[in-house]
## 1
Amino acid sequence: MNSNDAILIEVEGVSKKFSRSLKQSMWYGLKDLMSAFLGMNRNRSALRKGEFWAVKEVSFSLKRGDCLGLIGHNGAGKSTLLKMLNGLIRPDEGRITMRGKVGALIELGAGFNPILTGRENIYVNGQLLGFSRKEINEKFQAIIDFAEIGEFLDSPVQNYSSGMKVRLGFSIAAQMEPDVLIIDEVLAVGDAGFKIKCLNRIREILKNSAVIFVSHSMEQIAKTSTSIILLDKGKIEYHDVNVIEGVQMYFSKFSSEKFTKFGDEVEITSFNINDREAIGNSIPLKYGEDLHINFKFRSLVDLEQIKIVILFSDKNMHQLASCNSGPIHLVGNRDEEQSVKVTIPETSFTIGNYGVTVIFFRYLPLSYQLFLSTRYNFISEINVKTEELTNLTSLRFKGIWEV
Amino acid sequence: MPGIEKKHASNISMPVHVYSSDQRSGVFSTMKAVCRDFPVAHSLGFRFAERNIRARYRQSILGVLWALLPPLATAAIWIILNQSNIVTINHAGGNYPLFVITGTMLWSVFSTAVTTPVQTIQANTSILVKINFPREALMITAFYEILFSTGIALVIIAAEIIYFQVPITGHTFLFFPAMIVLIIMGMCFGLLILPVAVLYKDIQFALPTLLQFAMYLTPVVYATPVFSGAAKILALNPVSPVLTSAREWLLGLDANVNWGLIGILAVISIFVLVIGIIIQRIALELLIERMGT
């Protein structure tokens, strides 16, 4: 390809302001309308009362084959920036230049009418995305093949399952062959099988276009992006080709409650991972590194024998791995501190933040039954830095327990 | 997708979009943009209208008849009031039911033309804030929907013409251009209130009442009074001459049609319509950022 070095997206010092209050926003809207019609050149770069910068002085450029991951917390300005790139709203400062055909995977199945059939909706949605009628006729078979909606094609869309609806929406959008692609959080939809199809199709498009891609899935960002922008309160906080570093910064921005606790038979007095106080802190970890957990607890009631389970979960609180102790006979009296040391060799966490949950079970040897005693959840604890990107499925670590 | 490589290998004429803060939305540049986008906007707008009409009547048994019920009900009330001599209406002679049904049908065409542009924008907020498509498409949708309901009104008018055996003369067909002027006039009002109506819902809430009020300020159920004080107020109403002329041409009562006035109103309406389309284009860009998601 000869056009690899052509810059397709150029964003120069772009800012956008918004108003916090609805009433004020409506009033400013009216004023803006008046000055637009009267041809007055209003001072767009001054903030009026109650306004704030949703996006402030953002600049970057992308070539064909580049994929920019745009991350940031809710309200950081990602969607506003995408809307400006898509030409929906105009910047208050700066300039955006987009070269080539622009495609946006923002709202799948936009404009679907529930009463109309899938077939009818394909034509409406396709035209909305910029296809001509002739193009839709040509791509029609490809769309229904991709969507796998089968005999539902002539049923009203309201009879579709929600999965079928997004599948159909994606299949229409997937027919685009854009030079510039804007993706907002819709990377993969549907069930597992369809997700793979989505990702394959997106990867095909990625090769031939400049892509801007917003997601809260850091795994997706890390896998696809060639550069990364971390937005915070509208400003670029980090912009580099080092995607992993950007993802790390994103995770370190979470501030949250230190832990949650259910039950009150047991109290954890200290909890260290790799010799660092772990509750409420971020523990860096590399792929394949050993994990050393030291913690102290005391029982507030009489417990003879317990079992301890340590769970690791991702940011969505999906349990990924667990590590169980054998039966632990509590030697001391109640209120006496017990010290536990666990070593988990060669952990295989992929990049991300993991929460730790510790559960104490009351163990009754006669009935071999476990009763939930106390449960601790620590949020965003283990911070895995790695170049190696693996898919971690639920697995069980073999720990070496010493009490 | 084997097509991609080929397409990208020869990218001589890639479209370039520039969005910047210092772009001025001048009247002529906006008009040029409207003309450039027209073919795409038209086919998309037509598709939307087709979708809306299909979907609207697929779930109803009486279908399009519902659109005719309000004007027919108004006509029925006035026919009853007149025939029972509760009120005496000056209607320039002739058959009163014929006169009033035609009047309310024409008024329903006008009021649909006023309300549809705003309604179309409101109904499509979700795609306006998410997808970049030529915004005039929605005005074209509104236009076709207005044409569709006009078509239904025409069926009723045709039915009454046949039933009451109204003689058809050369002048009868002047009814059609007059009705088109009526539609354009209605759309003008609709487009002019659009920017404010999108921001402030008050307009939308007030519109049905205002239109009802305006109907009685227009000679719909009565004929234009000639020498009263009210005539002076009614003379300021630009809809009156168009509506009454259309009716008079159709029913062969066209003794006092002011041709010049109709011509001037037609030219003004078309001019205002063009302005209205430019206004809605400039306005929508500003309004979309205030619409939220």
## 2
Amino acid sequence: MNVILGLGIILLVGLFLSRLISKLKIPSITAYLIAGILLGPHVFNCLSQDLLESSGLISSIALSFIAFTIGQHFSREVFSTIGKRVLWISIIAAVLPWLLISVVFFTLLKQPLHLSMIFGAIAAATAPAATVMVVRQYNAKGPFTETLLGIVAIDDAWCLIIFAISIAIGEGLQSQAASSMLIIKALMYATGEIIGAVILSGAIGFILHRLARYVRTQGELLTYTMGLIMLNTGLAIYWNLSVLLASMFLGAIVVNINRENIRFFNILRSLDHPLYLIFFVMAGAQLQIPLLAKFGLIGLSYLILRVVGKMAGAWLGAVIAGADKVTKRFMGLGLLPQAGVALGTALVAQARFPDIGDYVLTTIVATTVIYELVGPVCTRIALVKAGETSKDEKEL
Amino acid sequence: MQVKDVMNKEVIRVTPATPLAGLIELFKDFHTFPMVPVVDEKNKLIGKVSFENLVDVFSPHTADTRRLLRGVPFLDIEEPLNIFKVEITPEMVFLFVVDDFMDRHVISVHEKQQVEDAYLLMKKDNKDNVPVVNGKGELAGMVGVFDIVLALFREKGLLQK
């Protein structure tokens, strides 16, 4: 089967399977992952090797667009908008699962440090689309719902930062010969990667803003925006800088230079649906089914520790922010879905660390399917317990 | 030719405090809902309201939450909000004010800008009309593709000046 035929099948199977599955009130991302697993090499084997091998390229492009889009959250307007409660809960509910999983995986499960930190960082991500879906389905409204939506809107940005730090430290650990100064050298390496990404994205962001005056049509604007995001990503790869941070910082810089630069984000929206659909289906297709049984303990530990980390982090954040009792008790439950950014970061880990890549990606794809099935139910319970769903749902 | 030579100076404008009821009253007899500039007490342009923003009235969430969610990837892949199933009550038309649903990202042109540049900007951003501001950022008028076409027609002698 040729690559173009494979892409056509991915788009159509993904689209119609998601419409079918939406009747069961399951997020579309789950449908795309299932479509990928079914079309992939271990079930119907409908996708050519060429297409599977090019998935790294598709994922890298999609991820740079995703990170660029997330970067617009670092605008002055957003920071003046988000309250203390959203800020504290989102940060601590992202950092605590990272620390918990990193420590338990490294000390108790005897996993390599870089692998432990990567799993921990991925655990920070949530699933805004699934959360919004549940909120809409149950017509939830009220202060708890607003806080929950605010948190899931920004916590993927914290995940990208934590992940970039983890991956930079991991690369630093691998690139240095074992010595007593290993951790310090790895931290210096990580700092260099991150500062380099800031400098690069600052320069590209300035160019993006200045040269935009020569763009004349919507088509040219799309081409120009895609071109500069890819240039930024490509240079970050070339100079071995943090790719995700470079893309996210580019978005942050562009949105803060001028409010009218929102046009760069709006124009990318026309690509969102097909690009993200292909991205998720391809992620599903890379699930190594034979490896699943082998990684049972790691997968199960990840599932449980992420829940513990999210619940404890949300509680601690709510305590620090002086939130009400309901927020302290149930906010963590609302943050359990995991989807897009987790898969994206797992794909980056697969590309950057070939020795552990399949291990990480298979675990994250499998746990994402579970979290996307169970997570929305937990979010619904949290909303019902907060008393913010419509009347017919409150008897839960 | 500069924008101020072709723009409309008589512009209906609203403030963030204008209630939804007042906004609907202003435009209910129009063929379609136009893009309405939002100004502060000093007539400084601070936003706009278009029919897309009016749909936000059906959203159960606050303006801040909607603004936060706007920058989130993957949201479009889920079912959009079904405005036919949203519970809204008649008093909401008085409770909602423009500040709740206005768009603060407004693309404008300067009154001294060349008409050709303004036309290209509208084409680039897929806009039929944009607000015009003066050197102080105050709303000076509105200019649309139709105004520019009319001006061209006049210049070429297709219309009397």
